[in-house]
Amino acid sequence: MFRWKLHGNGRTVEPGAVVGPGERLNWGATVAIGLQHVVAMFGATFLVPVLTGFPVSTTLLFSGVGTLLFLLITKNRLPSYLGSSFAFIAPITAATTMAGTGSALAGIVAVGVLLAAVGFLVQFVGLGWVDRVMPPVVAGAIVALIGFNLAPVAWSSFQVQPLPAAITLIAVILFSVLFRGFLGRISIFLGVIVGYVATVLIQLATGEQLIDFAAVEAAPWVGLPEFRFPDFASAGTWSVIAMFLPVVLVLVAENVGHVRGVAAMTDATANRSTGRALIADGVATTLAGSFGGSGTTTYGENIGVMAATRVYSTAVYWVAGLTAILLSLSPKVGAVFNTIPPGVLGGVTTALYGLIGIIGIKIWVDNRVDFSRPVNQYTGAVSLVMAIAGFSMQFGQFQLGAIVLGSVAALVIYHLGNAIARARKTGADDGGPIPAVGPLGGDPA
């Protein structure tokens, strides 16, 4: 498992070639690319605990441990970094407010267990049933509503410090269009740095206390992360767990997309590891939730690094995972990230939460969903309005939040609506993707 064949001369990648999962460059290049993967994942991974109030060092630790577990479970055949999943932000935020951190961690554990179970099913049955239960119009709606449901959270942070928030948001957008390749892919990370520096300068110029560095000075350089544990005993836990279940659908879509992307660039046999990838992410998420970390997912940022370098070696991910673990053992690193001011978070989340929603819409576009059909129209329309408005239903101490209601609405409207429309032959059902007329996508010539 730990033997990688040296690719070519070990220093360069020939034009048109890629370094496969079972290959590696020389160890100097491998370590350098591994550190580049750490930079790529860092901006997104630290944001989730900062936004949800979880310990940054703990989340970083379990992202590194989760990555190593992923490599072991997939038999070192599938390159991937497991970082914090944005899909958890909304349910963690709501669950923490309603029932406390312990209940939120219980929800993360529940997602991990269910995702691993789905992985075992996929490993033995295949992916066909997932496509039938969650066709593109439903998958897109569920991913989109998770992002748009967070819009009020972004605004609440933005209005606390409007100037740093606006600077951060503008920087994120500018970096995404100004730079090519890797730098463009980490525009959110760069935007946070610009916003942070701008806030420091504003504080120096005005004398207003915007950032408090006392905790950074007091934190030791070396120490264990803070561990927290899930609470399955509280009555409120079981009502908030329901809010986490739609996240499973998002993680399935992200993992499947990751595997297919790697298979397209390296070897089609990588698709055989889909079930193992889901199991691995489920195990990593369960472990993280059991000790105070956020749930994990395969990272698109790192796919970008692989595409740019054409190095798909799993050896670089062992370097990245071990580096993340080492960084997590410095409480001072975590303290620095905890000083990020609300204005910077408001600016970056205005872009970030919207992008999560746009990913859902991209699923519709990529699969050419026919929105002239009423079933598809109402599947998307009702679920998104429920999420944005924050619909909820209370049954004694049991509460269903907007993410649950919106996801259930999308599934019920689609499947029941199609059944009725097809029985009545009204033509309101989903007729499949719109036929392509001329070239699709791309910029005009």
UniProtKB/TrEMBL annotation:
Record-level Gene Ontology MF annotations: xanthine transmembrane transporter activity
Pfam families: Xan_ur_permease
UniProt keyword Transmembrane helix present: yes
Keywords, ordered alphabetically: Membrane, Transmembrane, Transmembrane helix, Transport
Transmembrane segments: 54-73, 80-99, 105-130, 137-155, 161-179, 186-205, 232-253, 315-337, 343-363, 398-416
Stretches assigned to coiled coil: none
Topology in membrane: Multi-pass membrane protein
InterPro entries per UniProt: NCS2
Compartment list: Membrane
GO cellular component: plasma membrane
Keyword Membrane: yes
UniProt family annotation: Belongs to the nucleobase:cation symporter-2 (NCS2) (TC 2.A.40) family.
Protein name: Nucleobase:cation symporter-2, NCS2 family
